[in-house]
């Protein structure tokens, strides 16, 4: 216990802290400038000075650790004089251009001068001149306004881990500069913006278009991009979003954001948004009305379900839509159309992995708090780069590394280059062998736990194989895992999208089991988990209840007033196959773009063109929508309310922020359609739907918007998992293939992009305007490629032309290309085979030839 | 007193290990390694040695703190940044007597349990770099550095790291930052380097001259050492005298030698029979003495009593031809240039002071400028992060205190009389 006296007030502290923190705890205000609560103290501005008895000079309260018996005074004539002096100093070279500066109104320097500063300046000398830099597309950098507090640099280095900017120069010439001196060329998280106290770094989005005090409203909501589900605040003026900012301490992200979350909001106001229903007439999509369009869809679906039975209809749900949307969608498919053919693109990754792990290790095994990563001793990262796919989760890994955790990376993960302890790069397609050997090594030390018969059995099978341990880093990785008292495993979807995916997943499951590790699945879209929970999977009802168990069916039939189809439906790839061979006649696509987002997209397009009837409900005219018979305009993020379940299984509210005319909420479109088709759905707002979910889904039992709004609703909330028991999992298949090509094509998951949304966000397009072929240093050397070369790359199914970017964090002979740009996504030239256990498409082993142009 | 730090200095081959050994070199290391580290430490305690880098901190105390820290490895850093204007006392050791420093560091490393040493060398001393590195190589070859030194089971590695020309890197925590490859800026203290220093490990930073005293302490014993010079801060001291004296240079004299004697006895008095105007006793950052203030024993106790600081022992002598406004302006130009930019009072204060002083010196002084200078100084003194800013402010205060009339004259006549005359 430490007791100190501040301004005659005795304060007891239960842990060591600075005098500044102690004062704040006691409600005593001390002005600060260089200090920021999420950064380490710096002690540069010296505004926070206090008097301490028995100490000769004034002390910095931000860097002075409170010691027992200290007697502190935070206000005195001397202290005020110093503060006034410091503030005067800060202004002598300042341009005093507040009327022109976007920061005015929320500038800490302005506020401080108002409160503590002198009324008149005495500085009559010439000011330092530094022209404002607009060489970056996103940031304006005005170093005349900079107070050299280094908050931005500490944020970028100590928290974001990007280390893209630094203070350069000495004395009065000190200023912040990105290492390239021109554009920032960084991760564009914008977290430096959050901490800059003045207008020295400003966002160029909406520059000079509003004042902080002119926002009509600020709405606390959740990001629409990935499965982390960061909390953020949308600031609105004249019904348009002017800025997105995080809030300190709030949500999973606690004040941090990534480039997509902060700068990717512009898509919502895009000119390209769909505003009216479209109907295909004479092969052309033409504008229509809601009543006409819905009438056509209702008639057509009714007809097909009568003539061909419900099982010839299929529905694709959306991991960008809310729990409510998806719940209503699957109910509609099952009850109004009479089919269990419901799935999503998530089957190609998250949903497939999730099912595998739950079958093996029990429901909820992947539901772990992101915060937990920071407390790990060892983090195993495999199957993708967390810092790109789920950037804010990636920050927790970087933090753990800084705190001394071992970061074991298998394969490529560029964002962890500076943070990894050991990297194991198996020869392309030897991953399974290497991981199995790792698992085997661990099981030899840890013994068999005997709780999961299937795992134990497979471990015995593995024990007969010759291990593959002659890979660099193997022993070190093994040691880090075995010596760790608290392990996390972070798995990306590259491990799933493989023909031998189930073998890889088994090793991850085995390691999770033997090491009692926390397992995190990277989750590209905001509601991949919620979509599964809501029942948008072919074999499960909401809450993960198997459809083929009649007891469960009976319960839902009673709630839903009707009869459920009995058999498991088709997975998404089976649906596409069905469309190709005409067993599927009609398809309803809600908020998804299968003609672009599924591998071998060209053949998906061919298959879809064979449908009798295709309905697409979306906010943009996507590649799939262009093929549809009817297109229904939906509402997007910030235009409607609903709940989302993030990768931790945290249920959060997205709120309505702006009004949009033209589209309708996804659930409302479907409910209207359902009513037209004779299956009644009477919801007037999303809360009605949540009340129903809370009644029928044991996972969301008794959950209410009220409780969700209070935060920290982590699954299972009041409910409980269905079974700790596990399903039978089909055994291993050997996939015997030789891979001897020079280069293999793989999918880039860029930090700055995510599907249909980001390519309509101007800012993100400025940061990463066109897809690049990313090649490792050794690959580049082998064929004499240089940064910026134009090349043609060719697979068995097509050719793409692109510019080359050399990326030394790619350590093997894979080359990466993204599927996020309008033309020529990588999926258009990638064929796949299906992993028979997970039903996910295997896209590995895509040989590619590269020709320099 | 016989020269010790500057022993051999006139021998053109003094930097060679053979010459050094001829005059008894490295015997003291052998002696130290034959003793328990704790016994050697007792000798250092008895010697009363205080740091020669400027602050005069008792070396024994610093070492004791570092030894008490249980963390390993520990690092020994030699501060050879010598960047303060007027200071060139370490240079003869570095260039002429490098083995004295190496021997001193090896002994210190042994006492401290530090197995790694670095010499952080001023960027503008390229010759010293080559000389030091050649000497270190020789010492390695004779197993006076390296593993299992002289078969006594003590390992000590030593390397030179060259700075890039920033005065602030002489401040020990900025030096550590710089050594780690970062921008040289001071760190918050506490924690002190003795507990959390380079790469967060216990680190001892000592001046070249301080460490070079170790062989002498070994040679004559702590007790005898403590009898040299002033009682409260004994030992030999290097004084580097520059400016208007007949014989400027580096003098090894007992600590506590009177400043008057240094100027008039050792340095042959004021150049060309001129008249003394002012003396800066310990480097540009120490407050100036007017001509009548120089009857002062030069040690870490007496000089502060007389209103200045011993600093590095860099004595700068000025005669009547020197304009004190110009000196102040030049000093502030230096501080403005060298301010690291970390803290507001120093960063902006030195900038403002320099601009005012430049105006006054150039004949553009205004009514109220002196008061303004003193007001600016008031915000700085005692408020800056490290002593650099304090030093800058102190220079201005002292100059105005003793030579206010010169400032007033500049302002009222709108010119610098002395500059015009020269
Ligand atoms: C601005 C500044 C510059 C300094 N420059 C030097 C220097 O060049 N050489 C030096 O030995 N000490 C310098 N010091 C003092 C060091 O911080 C430190 O006190 C000294 O190296 C300790 O060694 P000592 O105990 O042997 O004196 C400087 C201090 C300050 C504040
Ligand atoms: S945007 Fe993020 S990565 Fe870029 S400089 Fe700022 S903090 Fe660093
Ligand atoms: S740019 Fe902003 S945050 Fe960075 S040092 Fe300058 S004032 Fe501080
Ligand atoms: S006083 Fe402040 S700005 Fe000046 S050198 Fe020290 S830390 Fe840097
Ligand atoms: S807030 Fe303490 S020095 Fe800036």
Order of helices and strands of chain B: HHHHEHHEHEHEHHHEEHEEHEHHHHH
**DSSP helical segment count of chain A:** 26
Portion in beta strands of chain A: 15-25%
Roughly how many Å is the radius of gyration of chain B?
A: 22 Å
Bound molecules: flavin mononucleotide, iron/sulfur cluster, FE2/S2 (inorganic) cluster
The pair of chains with the biggest contact is: A-B, 39 and 34 residues
What's the CATH architecture of the largest domain in chain B?
Answer: 3-Layer(aba) Sandwich
Q: Give helix % range of chain A.
A: 25-40%
- Could you tell me the CATH topology label of the largest domain in chain B: Rossmann fold
Report the span from N to C terminus of chain B: 41 Å
The CATH first-level class of the largest domain in chain B comes to Alpha Beta
Strand content of chain B: 5-15%
Structural class call of chain A reads alpha/beta
Low-confidence stretches of chain B: none
Number of strands of chain A: 37
The biggest sheet of chain B amounts to: 5 strands, mixed
* Rough outline of chain A: globular
- CATH topology category name of the domain at 278-344 and 536-709 in chain A: Rossmann fold
Domain module count of chain B: 3
Highest-level CATH class of the domain at 278-344 and 536-709 in chain A: Alpha Beta
What is the overall pLDDT average of chain A?
93
């Amino acid at each position: 216990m430490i007791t100190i006296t501040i301004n005659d007030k005795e304060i007891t502290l239960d842990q060591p802290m600075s005098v500044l923190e102690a004062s704040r705890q006691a409600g005593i205000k001390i002005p600060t400038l260089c200090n920021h609560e999420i950064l380490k103290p710096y002690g540069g501005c010296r505004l926070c000075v206090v008097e301490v008895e028995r100490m000769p000079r004034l002390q910095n309260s931000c860097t002075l650790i409170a010691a027992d018996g200290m007697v502190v005074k935070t206000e005195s004539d001397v202290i005020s004089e110093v503060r006034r002096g410091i503030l005067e100093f800060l202004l002598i070279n300042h341009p005093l251009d507040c009327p022109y500066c976007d920061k005015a109104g929320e500038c800490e320097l302005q506020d401080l001068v108002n409160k503590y500063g002198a009324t008149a300046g005495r500085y009559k000398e010439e000011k330092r001149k530094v022209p404002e830099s607009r060489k970056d597309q996103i940031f304006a950098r005005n170093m005349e306004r900079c107070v050299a507090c280094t908050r931005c640099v500490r944020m970028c280095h100590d928290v974001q881990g990007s280390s893209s900017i630094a203070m350069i120069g000495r004395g009065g010439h000190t200023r912040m500069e990105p290492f390239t001196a021109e554009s920032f060329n960084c991760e564009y998280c914008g977290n430096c913006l959050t901490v800059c106290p003045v207008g020295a770094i400003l966002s160029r989005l909406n520059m000079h278009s509003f004042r902080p005090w002119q926002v009509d409203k600020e709405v606390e909501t959740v990001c629409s991009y990935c499965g982390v589900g960061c909390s953020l605040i949308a600031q609105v003026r004249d019904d348009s979003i002017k800025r997105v900012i995080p809030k300190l301490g709030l949500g999973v992200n606690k004040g941090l954001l990534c480039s997509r979350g902060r700068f990717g909001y512009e898509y919502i106001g895009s000119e390209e948004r769909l505003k009216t229903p479209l109907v295909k007439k004479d092969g052309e999509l033409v504008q229509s009305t809601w009543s006409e369009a819905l009438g056509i869809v209702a008639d057509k679906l009714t007809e097909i379900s009568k003539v061909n039975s419900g099982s010839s209809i299929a529905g694709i749900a959306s991991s960008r839509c809310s729990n409510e949307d998806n719940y209503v969608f699957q109910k509609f498919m099952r009850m109004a159309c009479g089919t269990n053919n419901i799935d999503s693109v998530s089957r190609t990754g998250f949903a497939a992995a999730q099912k595998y792990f739950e079958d093996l290790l029990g429901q909820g095994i992947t539901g772990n708090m992101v915060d937990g990563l920071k407390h790990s001793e060892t983090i195993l990262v495999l199957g993708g780069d967390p810092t790109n796919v789920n950037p804010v989760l990636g920050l927790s890994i970087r933090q753990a590394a800084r705190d001394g955790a071992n970061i074991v990376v298998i394969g490529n993960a560029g964002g962890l280059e500076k943070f990894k302890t050991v990297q194991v790069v198996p020869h392309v397609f030897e991953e399974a062998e290497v991981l199995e050997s790792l698992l085997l090594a661990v099981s030899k030390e840890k013994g068999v736990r005997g709780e999961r018969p299937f795992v134990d059995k497979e471990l015995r099978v593995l024990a007969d194989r010759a291990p593959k341990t002659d890979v660099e880093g193997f022993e070190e990785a093994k040691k880090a895992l075995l010596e760790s008292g608290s392990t996390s495993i972070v798995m990306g979807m590259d491990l799933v999208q493989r023909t031998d995916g189930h073998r890889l997943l088994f090793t991850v499951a085995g390691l999770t089991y033997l090491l009692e590790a926390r397992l995190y699945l990277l989750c590209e879209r905001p509601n991949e988990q919620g979509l599964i929970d809501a029942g948008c999977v072919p074999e499960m009802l909401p809450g993960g209840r198997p459809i083929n168990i009649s007891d469960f069916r009976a319960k839902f039939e009673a709630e839903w007033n009707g009869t459920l189809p009995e058999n498991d439906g088709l997975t998404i790839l089976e649906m596409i196959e069905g469309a190709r061979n005409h067993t599927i006649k009609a398809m309803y696509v809600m908020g998804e773009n299968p003609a672009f987002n599924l591998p071998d997209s060209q053949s998906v397009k061919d298959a879809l063109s064979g449908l009798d009837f295709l309905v697409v409900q979306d906010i943009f005219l996507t590649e799939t929508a262009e093929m549809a018979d009817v297109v229904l305009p939906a509402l997007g993020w910030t235009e409607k309310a609903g709940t989302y379940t993030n990768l931790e299984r945290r249920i959060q509210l997205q709120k309505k922020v702006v009004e949009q005319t033209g589209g309708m909420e996804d659930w409302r479109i479907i409910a209207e359609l359902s009513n037209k088709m004779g299956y009644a759905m009477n919801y007037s707002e999303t809360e009605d739907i949540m009340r129903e979910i809370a009644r029928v889904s044991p996972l969301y039992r008794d959950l209410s918007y009220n409780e969700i709004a209070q935060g920290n609703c982590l699954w299972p909330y009041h409910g409980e998992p269905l079974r700790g028991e596990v399903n039978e999992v089909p055994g291993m298949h050997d996939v015997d293939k030789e891979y001897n090509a020079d280069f293999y094509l793989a999918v880039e998951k860029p930090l700055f992009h995510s599907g249909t949304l980001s390519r309509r966000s101007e800012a993100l397009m400025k940061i990463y305007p066109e897809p690049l072929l990313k090649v490792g240093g050794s690959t580049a050397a082998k064929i004499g490629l240089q940064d910026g070369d134009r090349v043609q790359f060719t697979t068995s199914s097509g050719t793409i032309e692109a510019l080359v970017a050399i990326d030394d964090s790619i350590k093997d002979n894979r080359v990466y290309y993204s599927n996020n740009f309008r033309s020529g996504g990588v999926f258009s030239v990638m064929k796949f085979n299906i992993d028979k256990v997970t039903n996910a498409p295997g896209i590995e082993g895509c040989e590619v030839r590269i020709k320099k142009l | 007193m016989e020269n010790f730090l500057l022993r051999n200095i006139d021998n053109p081959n003094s930097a060679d290990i053979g010459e050094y050994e001829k005059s008894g070199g490295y015997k003291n290391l052998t002696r130290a390694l034959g003793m328990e580290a704790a016994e050697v430490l007792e000798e250092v305690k008895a010697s009363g040695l205080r740091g020669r880098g400027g602050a005069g901190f008792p070396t024994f105390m610093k070492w004791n703190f570092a030894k008490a820290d249980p963390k390993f490895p520990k690092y020994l850093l030699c501060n050879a940044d010598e960047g303060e204007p007027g200071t060139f006392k370490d240079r003869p050791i570095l260039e002429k007597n490098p083995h004295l420093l190496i021997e001193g560091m090896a002994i210190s490393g042994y006492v401290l349990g530090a197995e790694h040493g670095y010499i952080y060398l001023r960027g503008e001393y390229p010759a010293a770099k080559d000389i030091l590195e050649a000497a270190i190589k020789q010492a390695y070859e004779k197993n006076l550095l390296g593993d299992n030194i002289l078969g006594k089971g003590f390992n000590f590695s030593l390397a030179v790291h060259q700075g890039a020309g920033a005065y602030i890197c002489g401040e020990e925590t900025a030096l550590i930052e710089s050594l780690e490859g970062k921008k040289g800026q001071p760190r918050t203290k506490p924690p002190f380097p003795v507990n959390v220093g380079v790469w967060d490990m216990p680190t001892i930073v000592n001046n070249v001259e301080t460490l070079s005293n170790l062989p002498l302490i070994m040679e004559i014993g702590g007790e005898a050492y403590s009898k040299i010079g002033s009682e409260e801060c004994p030992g030999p001291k290097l004084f580097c005298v520059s400016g208007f004296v007949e014989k400027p240079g580096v003098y090894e004299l007992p600590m506590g030698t009177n400043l008057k004697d240094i100027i008039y006895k050792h340095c042959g008095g004021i150049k060309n029979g001129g008249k003394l105007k002012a003396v800066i006793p310990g480097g540009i950052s120490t407050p100036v003495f007017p001509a009548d203030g120089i009857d002062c024993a030069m040690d870490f106790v007496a000089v502060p009593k007389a209103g200045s600081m011993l600093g590095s022992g860099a004595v700068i002598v000025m005669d009547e031809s020197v304009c004190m406004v110009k000196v102040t302006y030049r000093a502030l130009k230096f501080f403005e240039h060298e301010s690291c930019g970390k803290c507001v009072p120093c960063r902006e204060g030195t900038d403002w002071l320099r601009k005012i002083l430049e105006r006054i010196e150039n004949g553009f002084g205004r009514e109220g400028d002196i008061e303004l200078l003193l007001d600016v100084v008031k915000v700085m003194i005692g408020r800056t992060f490290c002593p650099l800013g304090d030093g800058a402010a102190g220079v201005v205060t002292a100059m105005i205190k003793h030579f206010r009339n010169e400032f007033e004259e500049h302002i009222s006549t709108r010119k610098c009389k002395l500059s015009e005359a020269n």
